[in-house]
Write a structure and sequence with these properties.
The protein is mainly α. The chain has helices at residues 3-16, 19-35, 39-56, 60-70. The longest helix has 18 residues, at 39-56. The chain is flat and about 30 Å long. The N and C termini lie far apart (32 Å).
């Protein structure tokens, strides 16, 4: 998926207030930046995915927290 398509999907998910889609798309963006070795950008997107996961009580929150911890960007939280 190219960046423009992903950006459009993120905007649409925000418009719909669809937390599940926001978690999925922000995580996908993080994965792509991580693969490109742009860790700052990856963590930016991981943080957004994590916040939406926390807000909605999504099970993805634990794995997202672990990824941020691995990069030194968050403290480990108990879920």
């Amino acid at each position: 998926m190219d960046k423009d398509e992903l950006d459009s999907l993120l905007i649409e998910a925000h418009d719909r207030k669809d937390n599940a889609a926001l978690i999925r798309y922000y995580t996908l963006a993080a994965d792509e930046y991580e693969a490109a070795q742009d860790i700052d950008a990856a963590c930016f997107y991981l943080t957004h995915a994590f916040v939406f996961a926390l807000e909605s009580g999504a099970p993805e929150a634990e794995a997202l927290n672990a990824r941020l911890v691995a990069y030194g960007r968050a403290h480990h939280l108990e879920f």
